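Forum: Protein Structure Q&A
Topic: Joint prediction for protein chains with partners

I've read a bunch of threads here and the consensus seems to be that you should model interacting components together rather than docking separate models afterwards. I'd like to see that in practice. Below is the full input, 650 residues plus whatever partners are listed. Could one of the regulars post the assembled result?
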Amino acid sequence: MIELNEVRKAIEALLLVAEDPLSRGQLSNLLKESDGDDDNVAVAQLIDESLNLIREDCADRAYELVEVGSGFRMQVKPEFNKWIAKLWMQRPRRYSRALLETLALIAYRQPITRGEIEQVRGVAVSSYTLRTLVDRGWIRELGQKELPGRPMMYGTTRYFLDYFSLKSLDDLPPLRELQESAAETLDPVPQ
Amino acid sequence: MIELNEVRKAIEALLLVAEDPLSRGQLSNLLKESDGDDDNVAVAQLIDESLNLIREDCADRAYELVEVGSGFRMQVKPEFNKWIAKLWMQRPRRYSRALLETLALIAYRQPITRGEIEQVRGVAVSSYTLRTLVDRGWIRELGQKELPGRPMMYGTTRYFLDYFSLKSLDDLPPLRELQESAAETLDPVPQ
Amino acid sequence: MSDTVDEQALAEDSLVVQHDYPIPDDLFIPPDALIVILEAFEGPLDLLLYLIRRKNLDILDIPVAEVTEQYMAYIDVLTSLRLDLAGDYLVMAATLAELKSRMLLPRRNEDSEEEEDPRAELVRRLLEYEVFQKAAEGIDELPRVDRDIFVVSVERSDEPIEIEPPKVELRELLVAFSEVLERDNLRSPHSIDVESLSVRERMTSLLSLLSVKDGYLSFLELINVSERREGAVVTLLALLELLRDGLVSVVQHGSYEPIFVARTNEIG
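Posted by a regular:
Agreed with the consensus. Here's the joint model:
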């Protein structure tokens, strides 16, 4: 069987890399396999001791060990949120191309379903994108279309018009004009 | 100005959460803003001291502080990879020789056009290969070359360095050495 | 060789071939194996390098006749299997044939004492290609994120962080739209309808009006008198669009009876 300090570090590595929390059971499986016939009780004890060590060890560190519903995970202590907020603010404050294209398609082609957006864009539209647009108040659900699967239709909101200073959707440049002029007159979006 | 231990933990928090490595400049901006008129030199020194503290601190830990192309990141020490391998279900992707050779040419000969790559490889470079490399974020278009047809030139990205754990392009395995060793095994050209 | 084939599958094959060099010396090669081998070569230079290395030939003093013969034998087999040969292979075949004939010609020592070896250009290309073959292997061996390196990523705590959402300018939206249309045109060339946006907008507002009122609305209720004739036309066109899409249904109990409009589906 592996030694306590080794187990502690192995668990540390696993928790720091895992995308989801890891339960005691998962940890035990991950650690046992290496030897084969470890004593279950002994392994469980070793894991508990390691988790305690890690917990103590985090006292003077920016992260902590937290137990949530599905197991253990490492997370940054809440008092460091202000730094994280700054980091996020510093990031290029822009929406992704996927999001802008989705919004543009909804504006010009409403009412439009997710499938129809995907057809034009040629790639999947993430739920996250649509949720962001709804949260931002730019689009809304218009009801389901009478098609197999009853897909939701989306359209723009009044707030969308306000935000972009449009009196009505008619103020959006007509497609043909847009296509002709887009390449020449519109500079690349500044980064 | 903030106290060293506080800076250390803030940097720790930032590096643990950030999706990409953070450069000294980014760290400095994040830490300075809070006060406004901090002395740049003092901040830089504080950051360096903190980074050293973090580095020392990792001695008995499963992770380490590493500097790559675009800055600093925390990564699991290689000796703990065996534990993660069990957790990590996704099998590492293997890349075709076509893709790797194209990438190698772009890395060592940038800026380089598709035509120039084809000349060396003696075979057409598929758009698929280039697109995959762009999608992976390893290469980018650098602009068109002033030649007939204005072909696009390609170069590697900072992300390429990060992904392959290189601090700079100088860290690539030296090419000239390869050439010499190739020449050594061969007789001189008969005249 | 074009790599429209699944790159990943190809990668596995090529790696195998690269290390094992499985072409047997005798002439018989199982056709299946040959396809794999064909796909494993990255083009004529790769094939030539392989032929040279396999026989331990001196790359700087290539016996052109011998190599050409092997290369052509290989091409013949491929052709007999009716595999689509990339043009590059045929170009190389022509180059080799030309080299072979030039090597047969006696060297003229009149003009220059050291006339360049006719093979020089080919040798230069082979050496250069080999350098990058090795370089590619070198890159493949570099420690790689998610294969050899695992970056630590820790969640932040669940306490919300207040962040102002990014601002967007109308111009950005227009660029996004023209880009998506451009891509769409490239993929499936079809003309884009120039529709009146006011109709689209009206479709949206009719739909939400009908969902709010849940039930039937008379056609006249949908017409806003203050919008005058143009407004009525827009509403009518929008209604027709919605009808065509099966999103609304129109009911009239008899001639001259009021026309009612309803959403075809109940929104839950």
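Chain A touches chain C through 64 residues (CB under 8 Å).
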